[in-house]
């Protein structure tokens, strides 16, 4: 695994750089005549990045027909629910760019979780062309991190962290009990590129521990993200990494 850390002054600067990196990744795949398979993160942090993608130059310059969008996790709610990760992405950029409907693979949050966990896993298996270590390979997975060190919907002390064979898991938010569908750790760690987007001072203590100690010494799900043959990136702002930025 290769690890890179990029520190930005603020979320807008992070979003601008990430949009450039996004365009470059899509264009590289497009030039090779290939599709790119991406899993978006949920929560609020990606919003500014999504807004940048919905404006020129990205709006008209990215070959959106080459992009296949999935989600790293979703709340088990309908697509018009304010809690829906799909709704946030659709409102901020998907509905504004020229991406074919068939290239948008939302997790159907309104389905019963015990059905959706298998349906979505099958949709991933059917659409991703590459497989490695018996798991599908995403080109790029975006992740957020909670101030408790959760990522996607993999929460601390959850049995979902021990999933070794399934592509997706049914998770439950520890305080609200809200059901979630999430990619499992083995699938996330099978990706070619995994990028965390982490900003704000609330996340600084856990982020410091993870960046300094890393690996399996910590209880945080985010510290278990270690793409076997891939690139792990931390797109962070100064507020989340005051120590890194003297
Ligand atoms: C979700 C996410 C979750 C999120 C973090 C950070 O569905 O909530 O996937 O892992 O990325 O909780 O959320 P914020 O970006 O809102 O801080």
Description:
The protein is α/β, with parallel strands linked by helices. It has one domain: Rossmann fold (3-Layer(aba) Sandwich), CATH 3.40.50.1360. 28% of the residues lie in helices and 21% in strands. It contains 7 helices and 11 strands. The strands form 3 sheets. It has a 6-stranded parallel sheet, with helices on one face. The protein has a 3-stranded antiparallel sheet with strand order 4-9-8. A two-stranded antiparallel ribbon has the order 5-6. Strand 5 (131-132) and strand 6 form a beta hairpin. Helix 1 (11-31) crosses helix 2 (47-53). The mean pLDDT is 96. Residues 41-45, 73, 85, 144-146, 150-153 line the site of 6-phosphogluconic acid.
